TrEMBL record:
Sequence ranges assigned to domain Carboxylesterase type B in this UniProt record: 52-542
Top-rank taxon: Eukaryota
Signal peptide: 1-18
Keyword set includes Chloroplast: no
Name used for this protein in its record: Alpha/Beta hydrolase protein
Pfam families per the UniProt record, alphabetical: COesterase
Length: 553
């Protein structure tokens, strides 16, 4: 289903506007608000909690970590909350999420996965009352023993940064953290954050600060450093956990300012860092103004004019721009800005311009790009068309070299592809996801812990339900049940890394070595865990990074 811009916009208007499937917390967490649950004095507000008596943890939900980006603060860098206020804020147990938007191809994938038609799926995705511009909030899950111990607890903190192509997602949209807390024996605090999405966080133009979503995330880490001790956490023991867009965000924080400032965390678990190659920020800006002009009937061509529109208008404009994105793309996302992002993180890693002190656990899945690759790619000509669409702006000589030398049209099993579709998947997987894991390991002198999630089918984000597994074996992952043994192993590796800086734990199936010069990697398979040699230690990944550094790509 392809449509013109005007038809796409009409379709969006007809299907209303909002976001996905978060179950109310009352159904998933059994939270209680009682008179004896703690209230924390943050200065700018008093924030109360609810309790999960089964899991023995308090939840402080929807804590504002910034002045909300509304009115004149729209499209500006975030600011910490200010002032004093004795009013108690319960945060409520309802979810808050930033404005959501979905490309047509994501809606089609979701419709197919859920057995509904595209129009119904769009309506369900867009119609959630949880969406708001006042979304810069975070949740803190604190085991009762840690909170009651106070400052002396100095517990490690795990901070979740969600994925979603920088266009959709929320702090609770990937699942609940009760399983992770349980696997840690309630010895860690977990924080999950929202950050601005789509146009609201990633508009790029001469009259707006690019990459506002990265500034949101960094401010959340600054908030954690300032306030987490009030909850029993240590600001010196912070591990970031991110997947997809969240993972690539962590790469940007590690390379922020070209290594001129420290990353805002001590350790990171980087899962399938997603990268929109050659994202054209000016195209997104111009398209935003075009959609805004068409929708409002007014001439909108500056960020100030955009800022003056209503929240409902901006919501619609954001969705209209993202809806038209090509398969695998989202039209908004991080761009090189000369400041926070002085160059692509892959290049900064190669040049040694990053915070070398961070400890890393890194992963990718075995078939990352399958959901983002058109099944129409069955010939070499169609593959070339796919490559040009996914990686625009290159010259013919580069396209020829990519398809003749780097990923040649050889389908006899010499290379890890035997069809044109598999070849396209490999190209997308290596450029947009997996090779970034290799670059991180190499930059950190191979002193990282790497894993491959190869549990079938191994698509992008397939490991997220395993990370947030809470014991429900009926939870499906593209039709496959989540394997509790593998889920618990992944959770144990993450929480042990959070606690100690080393993912190895007593009783594990295999000893997990550092990546090392032999590129040793832990692989989660259908039958268990095994140590393998990373297949990303190849000339293709090396060529991509070199081409990015010398400007060929």
């Amino acid at each position: 289903m392809k449509c013109s811009l005007s038809i796409c916009l009409a379709f969006l208007a007809a299907s209303a506007v909002a976001a996905p499937w978060d179950l109310p917390r009352s159904q998933t967490e059994r939270l209680e608000v009682r008179d004896d649950t703690p209230v924390v004095d943050l200065g700018y507000e008093q924030h109360s909690s609810s309790i999960n008596s089964t899991g023995n943890y308090y939840l402080f939900s929807n804590i504002p970590y910034a002045q909300q980006p509304i009115g004149d603060l729209r499209f500006r860098e975030p600011i910490l909350p200010a002032g004093t206020n004795s009013t108690v804020n319960s945060g409520s147990t309802s979810n808050i999420e930033c404005m959501q938007a979905y490309p047509e191809w994501i809606i089609e994938l979701q419709a197919a996965a859920n057995g509904v038609d595209v129009a119904t799926m769009a309506y369900l995705l867009y119609n959630s009352g949880a969406q708001t511009e006042s979304c810069l909030v975070l949740d803190i899950y604190v085991p009762t023993d840690i909170y009651n111990a106070g400052l002396v607890a100095a517990a490690p903190v795990l901070v979740w940064i969600h994925g979603g192509g920088f266009a959709y997602g929320s702090k609770t949209g990937s699942g609940q953290v009760a399983g992770l807390l349980a696997r840690s024996n309630n010895t860690a605090i977990i924080v999950s954050i929202n950050y601005r999405l789509g146009m609201f966080g990633w508009l790029d133009g001469s009259d707006v600060t690019p990459n506002l979503g990265l500034y949101d995330q960094r401010l959340a880490f600054e908030w954690i450093e300032k306030y987490i001790s009030k909850f029993g956490g240590s600001p010196k023991r912070v591990t970031a956990l991110g997947e997809s867009a969240g993972a690539s965000s962590l790469m940007h924080h590690i390379t922020a300012y070209g290594g001129g400032e420290a990353a805002p965390f001590d350790q990171a678990v980087i899962m399938s860092p997603a990268y929109q190659f050659n994202l054209n920020g000016s195209y997104g800006y111009d398209l935003t103004m075009e959609v805004a002009t068409n929708y409002t009937g007014e001439n909108i061509d500056t960020t100030d004019e955009l800022r003056a529109l209503s929240s409902a208008q901006l919501k619609y404009i954001n969705q209209g721009v993202v809806y038209t994105a090509l398969v695998g793309l989202f039209n908004y996302g991080p761009v090189v800005d000369g400041t926070y992002v002085p160059n692509h993180p892959q290049v900064l890693l190669l040049e040694g311009k990053f915070d070398h002190s961070v400890k890393l656990m890194i992963s990718h899945t075995s078939n990352e790009s399958v959901p983002f690759t058109s099944t129409n790619v069955t010939t070499s000509a169609q593959l070339r068309e796919y490559v040009i669409g996914q990686f625009p702006g290159l010259d013919n000589e580069t396209y020829n070299y990519m398809l003749d030398v780097v990923w040649p049209d050889v389908l006899d099993g010499t290379y890890p592809w035997t069809t044109e579709f598999a070849r396209a998947v490999r190209i997308g997987t290596e450029i947009q996801f997996a090779c970034s894991a290799r670059y991180l390991s190499a930059a950190f002198k191979n002193a990282t812990y790497d894993y491959i999630f190869a549990y079938p089918p191994g698509y992008h984000a397939q490991d997220v339900p395993f990370v947030f597994f809470n014991g429900d074996t009926t939870t499906l992952n593209n039709g496959l049940p989540v394997d509790p043994t593998i889920a618990h192993a992944i959770q144990d590796h993450i929480v042990t890394f959070t606690l100690t800086g080393d993912p190895n734990y007593i009783g594990q199936a295999v000893t997990w070595p550092q990546y090392g010069s032999a590129a040793q990697t832990l692989e989660y398979t259908y039958t268990g865990q095994v140590i393998v040699t990373d297949d990303l230690k190849n000339n293709r990944c090396a060529w991509i990074q070199g081409a990015m550094a010398n400007g060929t790509m």
